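Lab meeting prep.
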Amino acid sequence: MTTFAPVRPGPAEASLAEQIAQLPHLDMEQLWARWDELFDERPAHHNRVYLESRIAYRLQERAFGGLSPSVRRRLENIGETGIVPRLSQREANSLLPGTLLTRVYDGVEHRVVTRGPNEFEYQGRRYRSLSAIARAITGTQWSGPAFFGLRTPRQGGKA
């Protein structure tokens, strides 16, 4: 496991946000040069979006540190089993701002962004609960956390 000491930009170096914002504007040669600064080897595929996202992640990892050992183990377990563990009620109620929730319903992918405690955005509108969004999507009463897979629905409920 590789760990990085946090690196703070100096006065002559662009801020982390500026570095990440610049990635889509780099040509492929510049993007590969940035990759080579941050990684020991190149990936097998050369998808631009993949490169940008991995570079952005590595920049953040260097600035703020990597994943905690418990999160790393959880992700490795998901990779090995393909099973995504359900969140506890406490975890479901404390989604961080910017968390993206997705759900395919009737063949359509629905995306919700967490904006803050009890504040969500769906299709440009703000909602106070996931249940209100689930109701807007389905036209019927749902548990929002269950609809978006954050917890197991109660017996006899919809899921």
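Slide two material, second protein:
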Amino acid sequence: MTTVTFRRNEKAVSTAWQPSTAAREVREPLRYLAPNWFAVVMGTGIVGNAAATLPGRFPGLRGGATVVWGLASLLLIVLVGAWVLHWRRYPEEARGHGRNPVMMQFYGALPMALMTVGAGTLLLGKDVIGTPAALTVDWILWSAGTVIGLLTAASIPYRMITRHHFDPDSAFGGWLMPVVPPMVSAALGALLVPYTPAGQLRLTLFVACLAMFGLSLIAAFVTTTLIWSRLLHHGLPPVGMVATVWLVLGPLGQGVTAAGALANVSPSVLESNDANGFQMFSLLFGIPTWGFAMLWLALAVAVTWHARKSMPFNLTWWGFTFPVGCCVTGSTALFQHTGADLFAVTAVGLYALLVAAWAVVAVKTLRGVLRGELLGAAR
């Protein structure tokens, strides 16, 4: 059994993300490709997906969102292909990610990347490739993402329990990554419910989404409690991990989104009284959870501002994108169900923040790739 302290976690993060310019590393970038790279797809895809349902219609918004969906799709194809080559050429390095107590958390990025692009295909890509083709792509990516996500939600905590020992100051936002994919499955699976044949098949999909909603919700709340305790008792995480504080917004915003999405499709599955009850649940759960998300957003902003001068750029900065996008879609869902302008204004404001964060992080990532700094082994 391996003893892992938070200081060792810091070293592991450094090993995973810090730059190197050694000539051999530049020549062999695939050797150091890790699962956290799929966060790039997540953070890019959510920019398009959030725009597709944003309250109000702004000139050029849907066209721009469709372009972003295309970019996310291309990134997914490239990264999946590169990751397959990585496993074939460097199997020992690839298996090492699963043994690393920090990097193994980011296996959850792959299923969320798959489902994000799948949902974008149905929401935006249908304008390009047609609804039948978009629906087929979404079914394939959602199904693959759901299976992989359920595996990460069970296997990563199991490995943490049986193969490592974590000190009280070890918890960080990355611990949420393996358990959030089922929540994404619930939210994005709701989009497929109307396209599922009525009867038992549609009911089964709806119930499965609801079960995955609960699975991820409870696991995320437990993990968030550990992260909150770590921050209060041990202070800020190392500067290279500050951005992971934002990851807590992911399950919160995605939970509100999932509740609203399942409420939207409940009339096609449940009796009217039950569907009305589900509509009420989406508000009774969604509004308080949204309130806590806004509190955490304020804390995340304050913590980041406090550490801004010493934060080195690394791939954890993509934590500034997808979680914020989840809060955008959650706010949009509450606006749809309540008509309260508060949620519409918040959704638009957070979307502006999302686009700004994405632009900054995307430029820094591209620069790091071109310079060979992000595809080297870190020290």
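Talking points for slide two:
The two ends are 24 Å apart (CA to CA).
The chain is about 70% helix and 0% strand.
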